[in-house]
Specification:
Elements lengths: L8 H18 L4 H8 L3 H10 L4 H10 L3 H4 L11 H9 L8
Helix pairs in contact: 1-3, 2-3, 2-4
Length: 100
Amino acid sequence: MNVFSLHTPEDVARQLAERVKALRLRRNWKRATLAERSGVSEASVKRFERTGQISLENLLKLAFTLDRLEELTSLFVPAPAASIQELEASQDNTPKRGRL
């Protein structure tokens, strides 16, 4: 199901970067401190905070260092079935791979 959203991937990336920066500042850490503790280069942290661009691996490292990794584990989890029919249909028809 597609839900209309006013957010673009770029918007979400910038919001995530702002939140990471806010968490860093709340801990009173310099970028260098976050970089050292996470294993992400300081240049990558700076670029992320400025542009929202970062690799998935580095984002996960930052989330782990900031004690927020658990929040990412719910990404892409299917929504619960709204009825028994939906539950049965999802269990019977889950393809093993895509067709297109």
